[in-house]
Amino acid sequence: MARPRSTQVSIEDTPFYHCSSRTVRRAFLTGVDDYTGKSYEHRREWIETQILSLADIFAIDVAAYAVMSNHLHLVLRIDIDLANNWSDREVVEQWHQLFKGTEFTQRFARDELVEARQLPQLKHSIAEYRSRLCDISWFMRCLNEPIARKANQEDKCTGHFGEGRFKSQALLGEAAVLTCMAYVELNPIRAKMATTPETSDYTSLQLRVKAACKVSNLQSYCHLSAMRA
């Protein structure tokens, strides 16, 4: 029997969680569907863009990710301190990047007067948004639903695109986190979708390699400039 998500997440035990989401109805996120022969490679950019965008909005760090042919993997870190340190205005501004909010939060964001009798409702909304912005269920919802809408529009169909529930596993301890990150980032190589980290497109591993190369190139340039001086 499936357990409520709230019983599977305990910030006191660990802020790190391995999440995965799989498609249904033979739908492919990316690559070539063996059944229809149709390529969905362009959808990888949709997904990576959404992942990185949400990482800037939520109080949740994306420690690792990989977009596979019909599923995706993420290692997420809940930053509860960041969420608690946001001002009420910051919470509203973050949330409004995703959803319209309420009449009162919209007025609050525009620095318009909110009547005293409306303040409890405003405070309740802000508290709710703050909680949601450090909730992995809301993170995954905001990742999967926009992708499903775009995919359904492209496929000219309706209905669910992903499985009803994403899978979530708590990562207890540094060893578990590092092992899971390696598993996630090396998934495309293990599945023969790529041969090297540099060619492992739409993964955090590739971003890490590119960042390291930039640092290395910058250091080499600075060293050469110092020698010439």
Q: Low-confidence parts lasting 5 or more residues at pLDDT below 50?
A: 218-229
Order of helices and strands: EHEEHHHHHEHHH
Strand-pairing-aware structural class: alpha+beta
Radius of gyration from CA coordinates: 21 Å
Q: Please give the order of strands in the largest beta sheet.
A: 2-3-1-4
**In percent, how much strand structure appears in the residues?**
5-15%
Mean pLDDT over the full residue set: 85
Shape: globular
Task: Describe this structure as you would to a colleague.
- By secondary structure, this protein is of the alpha+beta class.
- Helix content is 49%, strand content 12%.
- The protein contains 9 helices and 4 strands; from the N terminus they run E-H-E-E-H-H-H-H-H-E-H-H-H.
- It has helices at 43-57, 80-85, 88-96, 103-109, 119-132, 136-155, 174-185, 187-190, 204-228; strands at residues 16-22, 60-67, 71-78, 167-170.
- It has a 4-stranded antiparallel β-sheet, with helices on both faces.
- A hairpin with a 3-residue loop joins strand 2 and strand 3.
- The radius of gyration is 21 Å and the shape is globular.
- It starts with 15 loop residues before the first strand and ends with a helix.
- Residues 218-229 have low confidence and may be disordered.
